[in-house]
Design goal:
Structural class: alpha/beta
CATH topology of the largest domain: TIM Barrel
Radius of gyration: 20 Å
Helix content: 25-40%
CATH architecture of the largest domain: Alpha-Beta Barrel
Bound molecules: 2-succinylbenzoate, magnesium ion
Number of helices: 13
Order of helices and strands: EEEHHHHEEHEHEHEHEHEHHEHEEEHE
CATH superfamily of the largest domain: Enolase-like C-terminal domain
Largest sheet: 7 strands, parallel
CATH class of the largest domain: Alpha Beta
Strand order of the largest sheet: 5-6-7-8-9-10-11
Distance between the termini: 12 Å
Shape: globular
Number of strands: 15
Length: 370
């Protein structure tokens, strides 16, 4: 494998329904699709999961674009990469900006898997022949609308329902869902909207037997998460706080969480995501695959990652049709009535990217020589 260039394309895709979290509301996604070519004109795809605004973390599609063009490209060009597994280390000098680095890293993994004529999920070491799927439901205009959405997803067969919460839209929502669905696997995601001063509120959640409370406190507050976890029975799951294997180790050592959500972009690609997963498996910490409202390209990478042995809990990897009128991959991602996805058998990400559709959606493009 001799890398030749990175192609960046920004596309815009309107969401079927707005997605609202404690940090804001998204109605259309600006998505960066990355393609890395080698000298034989073979290529692999990646998707940058950075948001439109720096609200989930510090990155945006625009910062990621700049980092890739001005820093990832030149460093990779000088590094003379021969294997996908070397990319993470080559880019280690770039601090943070993991979604930028991860988009390129993942594309190189796809390229390498295609050259090896192997499905990406097997190429990265995945073994699960079927992955469990949950859904993430945003904040809604009313409790009735939320209940309607939950009902639809439970009936579709999803194995776990997660709802977004924020101050004053929390316990009430959970109580309403629990009274209609006493048995379902249910969790909440606060996206860092609370502080340790809310400990009494979190004690109240214990009565609802949630699978987990995701990221209640600020990303850097591992110590406060540990203090909170000591006060409550419900497992804390960390999302925003866990960027690296070192973060996972430190969170585990001080007791900040019992579950970890791994996101491919947040970890900076398959190498680090797999490493966090491996560490967690050794310590019996269940992990699951988080989502960032990805198009089919990112979704396909999430499916591949979810086949690693440690991904024992249902992830936020759900059907394309929950997000898009028409995805950019063929076939779109579909979920069985048992709430599962079967990883594809074709080489690389295993889904055909609809190039003419991508081209029709392009808003900006740039090539980076390697
Ligand atoms: O915290 O998991 C999150 C979406 C955007 C940013 C952060 C998060 C989310 C989701 C959606 O929960 C998951 C998905 O369905 O892709
Ligand atoms: Mg989350």
């Amino acid at each position: 494998m001799k890398l030749e260039r990175i192609e960046l394309r920004e596309i815009e895709l309107p969401l079927k329904w707005p997605f609202e979290t404690s940090f804001g509301r998204t109605t259309r996604r600006r998505i960066m699709i990355v393609r890395v070519f080698d000298e034989s004109s073979a290529f692999g795809y990646g998707e940058c999961t950075a948001g439109e605004e720096p609200f989930y973390n510090h990155e945006t599609i625009d910062t990621a674009w700049t980092i890739i063009v001005n820093h990832v490209g030149p460093i990779l060009a000088a590094a003379r990469i021969h294997k996908a597994d070397e990319v993470n280390e080559a880019l280690a000098r770039i601090r943070g900006n993991r979604m930028a680095k991860g988009a390129v890293e993942a594309a190189i993994w796809d390229l390498e898997a295609r050259l090896a004529e192997t499905p990406l999920w097997k190429h990265i070491g995945g073994t699960r022949e079927e992955i469990g799927c949950g859904v993430s439901i945003g904040l809604q205009s009313s409790t009735d609308v939320l209940l309607e959405k939950v009902t639809r997803e439970v009936e579709a067969g999803y194995q776990r329902i997660k709802i977004k919460i924020k101050p004053a839209q929390d316990l009430r929502l959970v109580a309403a869902i629990r009274s209609r669905f006493p048995e379902i696997r249910l969790s909440v995601d606060a996206n860092s909207a609370y502080s340790l001063a809310d400990v009494d509120l979190f004690k109240e959640f214990d009565q609802f037997k949630l699978m987990m409370i995701e990221q209640p406190l600020a990303p850097g507050d591992l110590l406060d998460h540990a203090k909170l976890q000591r006060e409550i029975d419900t497992p804390i799951c960390l999302d925003e706080s866990i960027l690296t294997t070192a973060d996972a180790r430190q969170a585990h050592e001080i007791g900040s969480c019992k579950i970890i959500n791994i996101k491919l972009g947040r970890a900076g690609g398959h190498h680090e995501a797999r490493s966090i997963q491996a560490f967690s498996a050794r310590r019996d910490i269940p992990v699951w695959c988080g989502g960032m409202l990805e198009s089919g390209v990112g979704r396909a990478h999430n499916i591949a990652m979810s086949t690693l042995e440690g991904f024992t809990l249902p992830g936020d990897v759900s059907a394309s049709s929950r997000y898009w009128e028409e995805d950019i991959i063929d076939p779109p991602v579909t979920v069985s009535a048992r709430g599962t996805i079967t990883p594809p058998t074709g080489p690389g990400i295993g889904y055909e990217v609809n190039e003419s559709r991508v081209e029709s959606l392009v808003k900006r493009r740039e090539d980076v020589r390697l």
